[in-house]
Amino acid sequence: MADLPDFLASATIAFVSMEIAVEPEMKCYSGGLGVLAGDFARAAADLGLPMVFVTLASRDGYVRQSIDSQGNQRGESDPWDPADWTTPLEPIVDLSIEGRAVAVRGWFRQIEGAGGASVAVLLLDTDLPQNRPEDRALTGRLYGGDARYRLRQEAVLGIATPRLLARLGVAVRRWHLNEGHAALLPLELVHGGASVEAVRQATVFTTHTPVAAGRDRFDWALTQAVLDPDHLGTLQQVMPEADELDMTKLALRLSCYANAVSKRHRDTARALYPGARIRSVTNGVHAGRWTAPAMAALFDASVPGWRVDSSRLAGIAQLDPAHICKAHASARATLIAEVAARTGIALDPERPILCYARRMTGYKRPTLPIESPDRLRAIAGRYPLTLLFAGKAHPDDPEGQAAIARIGAFAKTCSSDLTIAFIADYGLDLAATLVAGADIWLNLPVPPLEASGTSGMKAALNGGLNVSTPDGWWLEGGREGVNGWTVGRPDSDPREHGGLLLQLLDDQVLPCWYGDGPRWQRMMRDAVASIGAAFGADRAMRDYARDAYRLGEDRPGIGRQAAIGP
Ligand SMILES: *Cc1c(COP(=O)(O)O)cnc(C)c1O
Question: For 143-203, where are the alpha helices, taking DSSP H only?
C-alpha cells in the first residue's frame, strides 16, 4: 500500500491482544486486559517505540449494562461501527476455519504520543460480504458465545495477524502475545516455514492468569474441527504430548521470554508452570490518560515531563499537600455531579467516598464490604460514609450477577449515615470519573488471584488512598499508613478479610479522615509521588523494550515468511 503511514510500515514489534481499549466509543474491550493494552499503546507512542497493536474489531462490543428495577444486570450487546473511528486497510487476507476460507480485513487507527511519534492499532474484521453469515459474526461479540466461537476468534487473531502484517509489508521482529488468546500466532509462523527456534526467539508472552482453571483450553475434537490439517500437524509437531489445545502451554513453548504481571504473580505462575522461566513486569497505567485535568495541570506546573516519564512524579513529594487536595477536590466535585446525573443520588461532600469499581466476579469479592451489614451500619453511625459500586459481570458468571443484585438490594436499605449506590455501565468514561474523584479505592481480591490489578494505580495518581488485600501490585506499591492501608497480613486467612476490612476502616481509615486532615492530605500527596512514579505504563514499556524486545541473533523479518503458505 503506497499510503501506509511510515510509523506503521516501519513497525518491528507487534503487540497482539484479544481486546484493546483505545477510546470509550470503540467497544473492542471489556476490562483490565484491554485497558492495559490501550495504556501500553499510548506509552509506546510517547516513547517512540516501533510498535503496532493488533486486536479484533468486536463489532458487537462486550456488554452494555443496565440494572433493572430488581437490581439485576441486563447485559446486552454493545455494537459500534469501526468505520466511525478507524480507516479501512486495502488488503484482505484469508485463513481456513472449519475447512472454509474466511476473509479478514484490517482497520487502522493512529495513536499519537506526547513527543510526536505514533503507533498504529489494527482491528481485524471478518464482517465481509464474501464470508458466510456465521463467519461474518466471528469478530462480533467479545468473549461471547461458546468454546467453538472462542477458538474460531482466536484463530482469526493468531493466524490473520501475521498474514495481514506481512501483506502490508510490515517486517515484524518481535511478537508480543498479551495472554494466551494469541498463541496460535507463533504456530502460524512455524507453519509458514520458520524454524521453531527462530519463532521462539521472536516471541514474547505475557500471562495474566494466576489459576489453572482460568486459562484458555480447547479439547482435541474441537481443535481438530476448527483448525486446518496443516496447522493441526504443526501443533502436533510442536506439542507432541498434547491431548488438548492449551493456549498458555503453547505460548510458553513457542516463546523465548515469558512474564507475569507482578512479582507475586510471577511466583504463582512459576508454581503453575514448573520448568518455565517466567519473569515479571509489573503492570502500569498511562499517567496522562488517567490523571484528571486539574491534577494534570498541577503536574504540568510542578513536574514537567511527567507525561512521558512518570518517574518525575516522585517530585510531587516536595509539594505542599494542599495543592494536591485542591486539585482532587475539583475531580471529586465532578464525580458527585456524575453520580447525581446518573442515579439521582446527592452525595454529601463532607463524607469520604469509598469506591469499589471493577469486573464483578467472585474472586474480586465485590460484596465483601457489605458482608456484615449491622457492623457496617454501626461504623457509619460513628463515621458517615459513601460507598459507590460499579462493574459489569460476564453474562455467564452467575456469581458476578448475584453480587450486583445483592449490592442493589443492600443499597435500598441504607440509612442517613450510609449512602450506597451502584452506578451502571462501568467503562473507560465512568472509570476515569471514579478513579479521579474517589477518596478511598477498595481492592479486595482473594490472594493470589489478582495477578496485578491496575485501577488502584489510577486512583493513586489522583490522590486516592488504596485499601487493599495483600495481592498483586499492592504488595509492591503499598506502604502502610503512608499511601494507603492493607487488609490483613499476607498470611491472614482470606475468610477473615471481611471483618478485618471493617476493623481497618473503623480503627484507622475513617478516624484519619475525620480526625487528622493534615495527615490525610500528606498521604494523598505521597500516594501520587510513590505510586504515580513507580507504576506508569511508560515504566512497564521501558521494561519490555529493555528485556523482552531486545534483539538477539535472530533473523530479521520473520513475519514476512508467514505469508508464504496455502
Ligand atoms: C483500569 C480498569 C480496569 C482494571 O481494573 P482492576 O483494578 O485491574 O480490576 C477494568 N476496567 C476499566 C474500565 C478500567 O479502566
Answer: 147-155, 161-168, 184-191, 196-202
538-563 per-position pLDDT tens digit: 999 999 999 999 876 554 444 444 33
Distance between Cα 291 and ligand 1 center (Å): 15
Q: Residue 369, preceding bond cis, omega within 30 degrees?
A: no
The whole-angstrom separation of Cα 491 and Cα 486 is 12
Q: How far apart are CA 159 and CA 331, in angstroms?
A: 44
Question: Which protein residue has the closest C-alpha to ligand 1 atom 3?
Answer: 32
Which protein residue has the closest C-alpha to ligand 1 atom 4?
A: 32
Angle at the Cα of 187 (from 184 to 188), degrees rounded to 5? 90
Give domain limits for the chain. Answer: 6-283+542-548, 289-535
Regarding the beta carbon of 32 and ligand 1, being less than 6 Å apart is answered yes
Was domain 289-535 assigned CATH 3.30.930.10?
Answer: no
The CATH H-level superfamily of 6-283+542-548 is: Glycogen Phosphorylase B; (3.40.50.2000)
Ligand 1 atom with the shortest distance to the CA of 290: 15
| Cβ of 355 less than 6 Å from ligand 1 | no
Q: Side chain identity at 100, as an amino acid letter? A: R
Residue type for 349, please? P
For the chain, the average pLDDT equals 95
Q: How far is CA 264 from CA 17, 269, 274, 472, 487, in A?
A: 23, 9, 16, 6, 17
Which residues are CB-neighbours of 92 under 8 A, at least 6 positions away?
Answer: 103, 104, 105, 128
pLDDT class of 212 with cuts at 50, 70, 90 = confident
CATH topology agreement for domains 6-283+542-548 and 289-535: yes
Largest CA distance in the chain: 71
* Mean pLDDT to the nearest integer, 428-441: 98
pLDDT score of 150: 97
3-state class of 391 per DSSP?
coil
| Predicted local distance difference test score (pLDDT) of residue 372 | 96
- The answer, yes or no, to whether residue 1 has pLDDT greater than 90, is no
One-letter amino acid for residue 335 of the chain:
L
Distance of CA 360 to the CA centre of its chain: 14
**Which helix (H) or strand (E) is 280 found in, with range?**
strand 278-280
Q: What is the pLDDT of residue 118?
A: 98
* Contact present, 290 and 462 (Cβ < 8 Å): yes
- The Å distance, Cα 225 to ligand 1 centre, comes to 35
**Residues of the chain with pLDDT > 90: what percent?**
94
